[in-house]
Amino acid sequence: MTTIVDSNLPVARPSWDHSRLESRIVHLGCGAFHRAHQALYTHHLLESTDSDWGICEVNLMPGNDRVLIENLKKQQLLYTVAEKGAESTELKIIGSMKEALHPEIDGCEGILNAMARPQTAIVSLTVTEKGYCADAASGQLDLITR
Questions:
Q1: Cα(118)–Cα(127) distance, integer angstroms
Q2: Helices (H), 5-56
Q3: How far is the C-alpha of 23 from the C-alpha of 99, rounded, in Å?
Q4: Is residue 3 part of a domain?
Q5: Which Gene3D superfamilies match (predicted)?
Q6: Which residues span the domain enclosing 23?
Q7: What is the pLDDT along the chain (146 residues), one digit of tens a residue?
Q8: What does DSSP say about strands 79-84 and 89-94: parallel, antiparallel, or unpaired?
C-alpha cells in the first residue's frame, strides 16, 4: 500500500521539521471534526510561525477508534483535508500530530502520562452530537449518567 509519505501527489505538504514538534496539546477524541478544525488550525499555526506545538491524539473506544490510530501511525501521523471554496477545492496534507495513542495499544498509563508531562499545556476534547443523549419522550438533553 502506498502511503501519503511515499506518494508523489501534487498536494501541499508540511513545510516544517516534524521532529521538532512537542506534544503540547493532548486531545481526546481524534474524530473527523477535530482533524478538520483544531488539528487543521494547529497546522496553519505551524505553517506561519516557528511554533513547536504538536498534538498527541487519543482515542479511547475499541473498534474503529483503535483502527484510526493504527492507520494514522502507518501514515506517519499525516492525513489529508479538503478545503472547499466557491471556486475550487484545495487538498492539504496535515502534519500537526506528534503522537497517536489508544489504551489497547499504549495502555491507560501511557495516556495519563501524556496528559501529565510538563510540556502538556492543553488537554482538550471534542464532544459532537453523538456524545449527547436526548430523552426520547421530551426531546430534552438527558443529563443523568447511566
A1: 26
A2: 32-36, 38-48
A3: 7
A4: no
A5: NAD(P)-binding Rossmann-like Domain
A6: 18-131
A7: 667 777 777 788 888 899 999 999 999 999 999 999 999 999 999 999 999 999 999 998 888 889 999 999 999 999 999 989 999 998 899 999 999 999 999 999 999 999 999 999 999 998 776 666 667 777 776 665 54
A8: antiparallel
Which three-class secondary structure string do you get for 46-105? HHHCCCCEEEEEECCCCCHHHHHHHHHHHCCCCEEEEEECCCCEEEEEECCEEEEECHHH
Give which of 11, 89, 128 is closest to 3, Cα–Cα.
11
Query: What is the dihedral sign for C-alpha 75, 83, 16, 52?
Result: negative
- Dist. CA 83–CA 88, nearest whole Å: 8
d(CA 61, CA 29): 9
Candidates 31, 49, 45; CA nearest to 124 is 31
Query: What is the grid cell recorded at 32?
Result: 473527523
Residue 119 belongs to some domain of the structure: yes
70 part of a folded domain: yes
- pTM for the predicted model, two decimal places: 0.84
